[in-house]
């Protein structure tokens, strides 16, 4: 009887003391880190609000808007996320620096048979152009607005067949539009699947881009499901292994496709009434991505920055209501063979 009681006490101590002691130490460390954070770190956690305006969230499909709108004051960006210390990028293994990629930006604003523009899309265009031209210093940036399906596919066909691609060290494509589960919408209400774009510039179809990074960033709905979010568990869990997508064929190597949301889920836009060109607004993905890339591209590779973007978007909520608001989670399909750095 006594032996059985002692055994139970030992099991309880082993399970609970081992669990709570690291959490107490971690909690104290997090508290000390927050208290000692610099003013610059605090400033980079939020995008500046636009004074004197009311900001709204809208679902990025072809007509459905979110639940009752409420004004909000700011874009939350990755509050409370801890990251490892900075290291010299040149000391961290084999890398690929994009210095002169061919850049394509497709932003669909006005759709056929639909009244009014896609609010916030113009801000996406300005944010992307600023990132690519001013911050990254890329010289070959081609912007297209309000493209039909045939126009979109023709753009990729020209890239695939152009000898000019031999002069570029990669391809960067940004798309901001409405979307469905199968792909994003063009202004003629037709669907373009992302595979229809990537297949035209893979290692088989475009030899000039073979072995070079090809990055696609798609900000659009991928369905009609909304994500109400989940309450974090009291017990933290750690994953011991990372899943890596391995290309099935060599022709599929060196691709990165970043979606604004998981499949079958909606994607949100944020816009300001009366301020069409506000650089702080736009889709959740593009707003967060441009801010993170502009701040971190000199020190971190693309996948590191996209992890920060994931945290930033995950920290947002529709109507700025973190209790009842809807959530969104970007996702990346990663087939890069090297660590890619953005900009010169």
From TrEMBL:
What protein name does the entry list?
A: Caspase-3-like
UniProt cross-references to SUPFAM superfamilies, sorted A to Z: Caspase-like (SSF52129)
**GO process annotations (BP):** proteolysis
Q: Which organism is it from?
A: Paramuricea clavata (Red gorgonian)
One Pfam entry for this protein is: Peptidase_C14
User: What protein family is recorded?
Assistant: Belongs to the peptidase C14A family.
Single GO MF descriptor: cysteine-type endopeptidase activity
Read off the Gene3D superfamilies from this record: 3.40.50.1460, Caspase-like
């Amino acid at each position: 009887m006594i032996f059985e009681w002692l055994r139970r006490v030992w099991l309880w101590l082993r399970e609970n003391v081992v669990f709570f002691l690291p959490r107490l130490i971690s909690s104290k460390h997090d508290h000390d880190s927050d208290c000692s954070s610099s003013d610059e770190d605090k400033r980079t956690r939020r995008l500046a609000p636009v004074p004197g305006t009311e900001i709204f969230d809208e679902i990025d499909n072809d007509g459905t808007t979110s639940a009752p709108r409420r004004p909000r004051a700011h874009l939350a960006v990755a509050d409370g996320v801890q990251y490892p210390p900075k290291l010299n990028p040149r000391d961290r293994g084999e890398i690929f620096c994009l210095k002169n990629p061919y850049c394509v930006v497709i932003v669909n604003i006005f759709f056929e048979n639909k009244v009014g523009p896609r609010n916030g899309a113009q801000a996406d265009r300005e944010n992307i152009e600023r990132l690519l031209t001013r911050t990254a210093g890329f010289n070959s940036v081609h912007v297209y607005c309000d493209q039909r399906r045939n126009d979109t596919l023709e753009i990729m066909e020209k890239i695939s067949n152009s000898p000019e691609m031999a002069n570029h060290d990669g391809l960067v494509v940004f798309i901001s539009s409405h979307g469905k589960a199968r792909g994003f919408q063009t202004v003629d209400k037709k669907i373009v699947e992302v595979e229809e774009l990537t297949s035209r510039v893979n290692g088989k179809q475009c030899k000039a881009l073979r072995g070079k990074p090809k990055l696609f960033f798609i900000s659009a709905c991928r369905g009609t499901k909304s994500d109400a979010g989940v309450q974090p568990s009291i017990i933290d869990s750690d994953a011991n292994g990372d899943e890596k997508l391995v290309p099935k064929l060599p022709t599929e190597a060196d691709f990165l496709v970043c979606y604004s949301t998981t499949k079958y889920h909606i994607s949100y836009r944020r816009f300001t009434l009366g301020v069409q060109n506000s650089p702080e607004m736009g889709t959740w993905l593009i707003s967060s991505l441009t801010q993170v890339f502009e701040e971190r591209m000199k020190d971190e590779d693309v996948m590191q920055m996209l992890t920060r973007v994931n945290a930033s978007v995950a920290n947002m909520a529709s109507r700025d209501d973190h209790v009842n608001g809807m959530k969104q989670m970007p996702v990346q399909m990663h087939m890069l063979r090297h660590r890619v750095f953005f900009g010169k």
